Amino acid sequence: MIFLLLSFYEPGFEPAVKIEKKKEEREFNEYRMLTLSIIRIYQVTLSGIMGDVCVFEPSCSHYGYQSIKKYGIFLGLLMTFDRLERCSPFARSYYPDFYGMVYVPGRGYKLYDPPEENLP
Amino acid sequence: MIMLFFLTEVETFLNPSLVLKFAQELEREGDTFRAITEYKRYAYLVPEKRDSIYFHIVRLYMQEKLYPNALDVLMKINRRDTVWGNLAGYLLLKTGNHEEAGKYLHGKKRALFFAYTGKYDSLKLIIPVEPPELKSKLYAAFLSTIVPGLGRMYAGRVGDGIFSLLAIFGTGMNAYYMYEKGNKPLFYFNVALAAGLYLGDIYGSWVAAKRENEKRKRKFIEKVEEEVLK
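YS: structure for the whole thing
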């Protein structure tokens, strides 16, 4: 549980001038938190057992985590499901037209596909 | 000793013809960035040739695809003619200032502005090229609504389409199998997964069509650039 809570902690300095956050950012969204927790639990348990099977960078779980965190639960989940369907051996055939290639230390060469490139 | 060396050799260091020769040598070797530094030194030493040297620096930056740097140098040139205008327009297009570029481009080069901004009817008046055939995002999403994966195939990603179809069909079949077995939790899990994949596929088809269009536009612009800049 402590590990799970710590996983949401993002280190950083406190800004000198406090910027007022937007209303939707201030609100605590329990569904978003629940989905992000499920992804985190998957990352610390099942992901390690399965090994490195994803052809993309960021990996599908990180992609899902980032997209839900950035774009909210609805769009984030749609993007995650879309990515899960694209994560197949066929993906490499779309290089270099749709994806770039990056070297990730410890994972080798992966197709670069950040959430920002798959917005509607 | 070192001071004495510099005082005696200072004329060699600041000899414009030697500086230019050295810059050309660096350029020939492929050391572009150091060559640019030396060209700038030459432009400083020989102010009357500043504009022509700056044009050359712009060309070197363009070779390295450093368009913002090229634009910065170009703006320092005092000469303001058609050549300068076309180059400024081209660099503005490359740096994303499409509307601004329209003010600078003249003649045949104006075709680039129309290609970048998607004004294909005006482009046709300058160069006889067929505009790119774009995929409909809405139609792709509609196809995926009817048959999962079909929208992706329409958008040009056949492999992704087949995989999506298999994934949705597989989870759907699994849900049915669990229902037959009476395993309610796994039935609901599979139904939720299949529904998510189905919606994700519709969304993915939309994005695939969008990205395919981007690719086609990019290739079309390259073709127009080849035609205009040859």
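YS: worth flagging: Chain A touches chain B at residues 77-82, 84-86, 88-91, 93-94, 97-98, 117-120 (CB under 8 Å).
IM: good catch. Also The longest helix of chain A spans residues 60-86.
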